[in-house]
Amino acid sequence: MPYQGEQQFEIFNQDQPTELGLMRNHDWHIDPRRFAFTFSRYKFVSKMFQNYDQVLEVGCGDAMATRLVQQTVNSVTVIDFDPVFIADIARRQNPRWPIHAKQHNILDEPVDKLFDGIFSLDVLEHINPTEEHNFMTNICQSLKPTGTTIIGLPSLESQTYASELSKQGHINCKTGDQLRNLMHQYFNTVFMFSMNDEVLHTGFLPMSHYLLAIGCHKRLESATI
Questions:
Q1: Residue 84: inside a domain, yes or no?
Q2: Parallel, antiparallel, or unpaired for β 210-218 and 143-154?
Q3: Which residues contact 179 (CB under 8 A, 6 or more apart)?
Q4: CA angle, corner 93, sides to 89 and 99, nearest 5?
Q5: What CATH number is associated with residue 96?
Q6: How confident is the model over 108-131, as pLDDT tens digits?
Q7: What is the pLDDT of residue 138?
Q8: Is the pLDDT reported for residue 2 higher than 60?
Q9: Could you list the residue range(s) of the whole structural domain that residue 48 is in?
Q10: With 162 labelled, which of 54, 126, 130, 221 sits at a CA distance of 20 to 30 A?
Q11: Residue 11 domain-assigned?
C-alpha cells in the first residue's frame, strides 16, 4: 500500500515541465534572486488590474512573469519590438494560459486597439529621452479614456549600485519626482509607489531602488488615436 502522502503528490506528475523564457533562464543562471524582484513587480500589476478586461504589456521580453497578470484579468496582449522574444513566447505557448503576442514598436505608432490597462516594466529606462514623448503618447493613444497605465523602472539613485553592463543600457532612469512629473504630463491623476528588492512601499523615494507610477484619467489631448 503506497504511503498516503504519495497519492496527493501524484498531481505534480500531470503537468509537463515548463521551459523558462530567455530572460528568466538567464536570471536563473546569473542571479536567481531576480525572480523574486521581477515577480513582485508583476504581482503588483496583477493586483492593480484585477478584474480588468483587456490589458496590454509594452516591452514584454519573454513574458514569463506576465502569467501573474493573466491570473487576474480577462485577456493579455504583449508586444515587443524584438522578434526574438515574440518567437520565444510563441514556441512556449500553453493552451491553459493563452496570450496574444506580437511584434510591435510602440515608438513608431499606437497599437491598433484600445485597452483597459497598459503596463510597461523595465522599459522606459532604455528609451532615449528624445523618444520619451513618442513612447508615452503612443501608450496613451492605445488606452481607453477610462483606462489605467502603470510604468516601472529602476530609480536614478539605484544606478550607483548597478553593474557596468546594466548602466550601458539604462540611459533614462529617473528620480521619483521626475517620473511623477513625466506621468502628470499625460495623466490627471498619478499615484507613486516604490520597491527595495521585492518589498513594495510608499517610503522616501530617493532611497528606493525601483519606482512604480500609476496614471489614471488621461488628459483629453491623449484620448483619441
A1: yes
A2: antiparallel
A3: 151, 153, 192, 211, 213
A4: 80
A5: 3.40.50.150
A6: 999 999 999 999 999 999 999 999
A7: 97
A8: no
A9: 33-222
A10: 130
A11: no
